[in-house]
Amino acid sequence: MLETAELSHIDRLHRIGRQVAVLKRIYLSYEQIIVRVLEKQEPTNASLKNSHYMGLSDDLASSHPGIAESHQGLGGFLTSAARVRFERLKYRIRLYALSEIDECLDQKESLVMVVSDIFLF
Questions:
Q1: Residue 51, CB-side half-sphere exposure with 13 Å CA sphere
Q2: Who's near 41: CB < 8 A, 6+ residues apart?
Q3: Is 0.85 topped by the overall pTM?
Q4: Cα distance between residue 72 and residue 85, in whole Å
Q5: DSSP secondary structure string, 25-67?
Q6: Would you say 60 and 66 are in contact if contact means Cβ atoms under 8 Å apart?
Q7: How many angstroms separate the CA atoms of 64 and 58, rounded?
Q8: Torsion of CA 108, 112, 117, 120, to 10 degrees
Q9: What is the pLDDT of residues 38-86, one digit of tens each?
Q10: What integer pLDDT is reported at residue 46 of this predicted model?
Q11: Contact 16, 108 (CB under 8 A)
């Protein structure tokens, strides 16, 4: 006796897949923010005018070399320790969040294919 196929699991998998895809886009946006923070930007006249470092004196810059060498013009400066932390955060987002999300999406697709193959035969 044949029973009707229960396909609610596939619908549930698709809903979960959409939620995971949204989560992936969120983490990709975090990664992009970190990339933008880390990229060296050339200062413009407007950014220098609005910068609180405009009046940076030579003796302050010489006494705090980290300020002079790490000042990016736009949005302030990052110390080398901050740059390392941002790089580590970017790496961890890629390694732990995005790679796990990709694996979950791949497994979801595999499950959908297996279930589809079972019910088609």
A1: 18
A2: 72, 73, 74, 75
A3: no
A4: 17
A5: HHHHHHHHHHHHHHS-----HHHHHH-TTTT--HHHHHH-HHH
A6: no
A7: 10
A8: 180
A9: 887 666 666 666 655 544 444 544 555 554 444 444 455 788 899 999 9
A10: 66
A11: yes
